Amino acid sequence: MALICTYAESHKNPSGPGDARPTAIQIVQDQNLIDKWQGKVALVTGCSPGSLGAEVARALHATGADVYITVRDVAKGLEVAQRISADKHAGKIEVIQLDLTSPDSVQHAAAAFLEKSKSLHLLVNNAGVLGHPLHITNNGVDIHFAANYLGHFLLFQLLRSTLLASASEFETRVVNVASVAHRLGTYDLDDLEFKNRDYDASTAYAASKLASVHFANEIERRYGPRGVHAFSVDPGITATSFTKLTPGIVAMMEKFGAGNLRKTPEQGAATPTWAAVARELKGKGGEYLEHCGETELCTEDSFLAIGHGKDAYNEVKEKKLWAKSLELLGLEDDA
């Protein structure tokens, strides 16, 4: 079956931020969804000013949906909400405080959302960290694994019933913002505290993003038949994230001449938005998406190459990750 790569041509010769590659709003326009999703509900994590998450939220709000955004700093979230409200679309835009490294904060955020909405059709797990020195959270995992993966896993578990209930009226989707770095990632479920191995921020980040890919695949396996579909996506290198990259990743990008791959936040938000709204993906899930399209296995040893890593689809590891995550959080499996 042919891959869906509607925007492949615009990605062939990138020339940097603001080039021909699509923006998130363009995706919504191309899907003819401006103000068409009134009554639908979306939750987007990691929506600080100027972020990729803020642009995903803006695009989803343009559909007319009610959009809830999460931030660690509520004042910054209110700033984003005010800017999005100025676009004058039909849906609400509200802010919820969330620190994904704290299970208590995740529980409070989920409860706050459920007080405000009885439906949830789109969950975009976007928030994350990059380049942190070794820091072990209360869960016994490093901060990258906690913020980029485990906190979102807990959030999904707390909102799972609402997603499933909402699927009866509208196909619901979960979008995990991963990274091309997943191709370099591996995680050790027996040593998430880095007690028996050297710590490197770049490899810890890559491991957390592979976990995000596996997380989406297992959601699809478990809940896709019940109408909750999940995708993992690479948003690309945004202008906002570029200066936060660790020296090792920066050196790799410079080696391969990746500067032209950088995107504006609006462009970086395009693939997560496409995963959330594209009608071409109806009934699908458990896929890693890139450049607003489906991908095949990457066979080139290059940071610039397109495609998913050789370990992106691994049912055995995905099931073990799910079980370990439940154990870390003290949760029961609903299977």
TrEMBL record:
InterPro entries: NAD(P)-bd_dom_sf (IPR036291), SDR_fam (IPR002347). Pfam families: adh_short. One of its GO terms (molecular function) is oxidoreductase activity. Keywords: Oxidoreductase. SUPFAM superfamilies: NAD(P)-binding Rossmann-fold domains (SSF51735). Belongs to the short-chain dehydrogenases/reductases (SDR) family. This is Uncharacterized protein. It comes from Thelonectria olida.
